[in-house]
Amino acid sequence: MEKLDAILESLLFVAGEPVAIADITAKLDVTKAQIEKAAKKLQEKYNEECGINLLMFNGKLQFSSNPKFAEPVSTVLNPIRQRNLTKATMETAAIIAYKQPITRMEIEDIRGVGCDYAINILLEHKLIEIVGRKDTVGHPALFGTTDEFLKRFDISDINELPDYDEMLENIKKINTKQQDDSLYNNYQSTEQTEEQIDEKLEEIKKEETEVSEESDNEFVDSNLEEFDDDLV
Hints:
mainly alpha
């Protein structure tokens, strides 16, 4: 098909959301290879210097704003930004990504703390979704990642995630560093407090010495006056 790349460009622009390659091939009577070739051509056109990029993920295509310009775009439009996600939320997202489908209790067993808030934030940002129910007592919800998760972290497939053990080790290092920083800050705070106490004690000692000297001087002056009176 002639101008397939231009047709694909118009289609994705109007859609404004992910479009499955399978749907495009079925409707336009073209092959998957032809669509992928046209998509590659568009990716070259909308390169890293452009304000728009073409994403390919999970067998789908979608136009997206260039992440390089996320800050000015956020300033104007105030969309959900990645930095709104706390470290705890990111840890929860990582566990779900690697262990999906997974229940809330299973996530908490891995993290060692409650994760209701983190899960709610991830659901609100559409980074995870309920993908089913576990066949156990209570039938708890099973969570999995979404296409939005793939887009947010710029990967085309969940299999592109780094090694799970490596990821956990990195999280552990982050936690350890934060704990060390906290201990160091507490130590510095304690050290500063001790210095302040020492300075205060020195001031008190100095004041006591000055008061004592003044009292001694007054005592001497008083005795001298009495001595002078006696002489008179």
